[in-house]
Amino acid sequence: MSEPAILQSTDGEIGILTVNNPPVNALSAAVRTGLAEGLAKMGGDPAIKAIVVIGGGRTFIAGADIREFGKPPSGASLHDVIGAMENCSKLVVAALHGTALGGGLETAFGAHYRVALSSGRVGLPEVLLGLLPGAGGTQRLPRIAGAAYALEAMVSGRQIGAKEALAKGIVDRVVEGDLLAGAVAYARELLSQKAPLRRIRDMTAKVDSPTLFEGFSKSIARKARGFKAQWNIIKCVEAAVALPFDQGMARERELFGELLTSSESAAQRFYFFAEREAAKVLDVPADTPQREIRTGAIIGCGTMGGGIAMNFANAGIPVTVLETSQEALDRGLKVIRGNYENTAKRGGMTSADVEKRMALIRTTMSYDDLKDADVIIEAVFETMEVKEGVFTKLDQIAKPGAILATNTSGLNVDQIASYTKRPGDVIGMHFFSPANVMKLLENVRGKATSKDVIATVMTLSKKIGKIPTLVGVCEGFVGNRMLRQRGIQSAYMLEEGALPQQVDKVIFDFGFPMGPFQMSDLAGNDVGWRIRQGKNEKEQRNVRYTGYVADAICELGRFGQKTGAGYYKYDLPDRTPIPDPAVQAIIEETSKRLGVTRRAFGDQEILERTLYPMVNEGAKLLEEGIAQRALDIDVIWVNGYGWPVYRGGPMWWADNVVGLKTIHHALLRYKEMSGDPFWEPAPLLKRLIAEGKKFSDL
Ligand code: 3H9
């Protein structure tokens, strides 16, 4: 028989309810029912004077069981459990350790007093799932900590340390060491003081400024664009201030329900699990032995190499960076120090932290100094010749068993591995720029990459603060290969009648931080220009040339923001893109030269022509086994390319919002209109439709 979800025990006159639902004590039906029963039993037991509610294992309750959302309700409701606790005739103390989050903290709010371990953290992170705290959190937190604090805490969803929680009255005491002993002692102390059965619902929510809500709404407008939950949270806090508790609770329930059934929250809940799944590799079991990583080395201390080195230092792993000149090393280190000092200035770390991290970064100009490194990541110029030189050298000096990684964003990892006599040790680790900020790591397995190398790199990725995914070898991997499809159609649409600002607006309104032309101006239009020249793309590609407008723009030296002009003009240092009649003239001239009659474009066509080809390419990547699962593609797009998380990711969006049939029809329609084989639907798309399945069924 399985163990009960709530264990009941006593310590003298103190009853103890221990939540026993590993790994994170989520509030499943069994936990809720067990708590309700335990409270009822101990509440009616004259031998018990106070009750301590505590989490077993590594944490207090980390929230509602997200997998239960949308399923028919069963067991005791969380509201009833919290109500039973609040109205219990015995003094209830919640004892918090690990992470008391969401419904977990809301449960603790039902207790009369809260004690936390000093290492414990609390928070209401529902917003990250497109939800709001729906078990009284929106009504109780403003009553404890004030409306302004509650707004910020719930809209950010951040975790709050025990010290801050104490200062804000979220917990009443912080203890070190043995939490249960501390909680029992605290309960006895409260009993001896005849402390009242304090209920948060009886308090008043304080609002300091009459313009609080208006000001707060304005302050989050940019960040919360497209999301629903943030705005509903604000409405709940307004209710907490304006209405009696029970009416506020009714408002919270209504606004929570609205979110629970929203597509935005469905997407964000999907994404929560997708991110965790993406770290798992289908054919690499969780118990695969891993190599020990105690030291790292980075070849190159430019923007990428420096950012990667910071990730190691942040994780406390000593790292050596190699450059070809002292000057390059000095420059790289100066940038790293500057980044850390900026963080320190903003209060993100102390100056001692800055020095500690800088001390973990060593520099060298000699490959010999890398011979003891457990992992060496190459972040040098993106051509095969340069990579060949580096990997030939690494093969000579790296110790046996060292992992040799390339940060290439699209070159063939198998070819790179072939420059060594140990291709099993070679893997791609595609960081995104700026590497110290961007969370995504697109790890790339070569044909020969050994499983223990994959397992080690997936673990290392998390250790250095990244969200890992694993993909196979192909040009551009998953992210850039799909991005290219969007780029191709964006370029064609300029030739056919659209303007950069029109295309960018549609993509921005969809929820991306910026459209493809603004992105190109930011990254530098010359990058693509040089690649096109190198490849002689006009002859090579089976697709119509995409560079006519882009080349004309680059030929004028309009490389983007850095030159003050690209697809837009810029009044530097202000980086706001300003539509430029000169660009319109270049585009119109190009159309004329190509013999294309320009026509008007509607937003829907722009959306379909930029995003549907990405989904189609995603289907091909799945077919080819480059992506393991549709969810990996989604995680890559949300983290690396700014796909709005409230739309799940391109494959989730295709499955659940647009529908595969609609996409398939549109691809055929554009194929017929253009006669371009570009639009041929992927065989997988056709097969899934025929079988009535989705990408997520694969
Ligand atoms: C809520 O509470 C709504 C209420 O306001 C209203 C109700 C009416 N449910 O992340 P990890 C799984 S909304 C189900 O790898 P860590 C997770 O999938 C909720 N499963 O560990 C993973 O499974 P697997 C508000 C959950 O140590 C395993 O547990 N709460 C849940 O890196 C380990 O997770 C939150 O949003 C859950 N709630 O981080 C907190 N949580 O091993 C969400 C985790 O099969 N959770 N799992 O892959 C977290 O932020 C992190 O999991 C936590 C631990 C910080 C707790």
What does this protein look like?
It is a single chain. The protein has 698 residues and is of the alpha/beta class. It folds into four domains: 6-260, Alpha-Beta Complex (2-enoyl-CoA Hydratase, Chain A, domain 1), CATH 3.90.226; 296-471, 3-Layer(aba) Sandwich (Rossmann fold), CATH 3.40.50; 479-594, N-(1-d-carboxylethyl)-l-norvaline Dehydrogenase, domain 2 (Orthogonal Bundle), CATH 1.10.1040; 603-697, N-(1-d-carboxylethyl)-l-norvaline Dehydrogenase, domain 2. Helices cover 49% and strands 12% of the residues. The strands form four sheets. It has an eight-stranded mixed β-sheet with strand order 12-11-10-13-14-15-16-17, with helices on both faces. (S)-3-Hydroxyhexanoyl-CoA binds at residues 23-24, 26, 62-67, 78, 99, 101-103, 106, 125-126, 129, 131, 133-135, 137, 273, 276.
Summarize the structure.
By secondary structure, the protein is an alpha/beta fold. The protein is built from 29 helices and 19 strands. α2 (about 80-85) runs parallel beside α3 (about 105-110), α4 (about 135-145) crosses α9 (about 230-240) and α18 (about 475-495) packs antiparallel against α25 (about 605-625).
Number of helices: 29
Instruction: Please report which band the strand proportion falls in: under 5%, 5-15%, 15-25%, 25-35%, 35-45% or over 45%.
Output: 5-15%
CATH architecture type of the largest domain? Alpha-Beta Complex
CATH topology of the largest domain: 2-enoyl-CoA Hydratase, Chain A, domain 1
Helix-strand layout with pairing:
Elements (H helix, E strand, L loop, with lengths): L5 E6 L2 E6 L9 H15 L6 E6 L22 H9 L4 E6 L2 E3 L1 H8 L2 E5 L3 E3 L13 H9 L1 H10 L3 E2 H6 L5 E3 L3 H14 L19 H9 L8 H14 L2 H16 L2 H16 L17 E4 L3 H12 L4 E4 L3 H20 L5 H9 L1 E4 L10 E4 L5 H14 L5 E4 L6 H5 L8 E6 L8 E6 L5 H13 L3 E5 L5 H20 L3 H11 L5 H8 L1 H11 L1 H4 L7 H8 L12 E2 L8 E2 L1 H14 L8 H21 L6 H11 L9 H9 L1 H15 L8 H9 L7
Parallel strand pairs: 2-3, 3-4, 4-6, 5-7, 6-9, 10-11, 10-13, 11-12, 13-14, 14-15, 16-17
Antiparallel strand pairs: 1-2, 7-8, 15-16, 18-19
Helix pairs in contact: 1-2, 2-3, 4-5, 4-9, 5-9, 9-10, 11-26, 12-13, 13-14, 18-25, 19-25, 23-24, 25-28
The site of (S)-3-Hydroxyhexanoyl-CoA has 25 residues, from strand 5, helix 3 and helix 11.
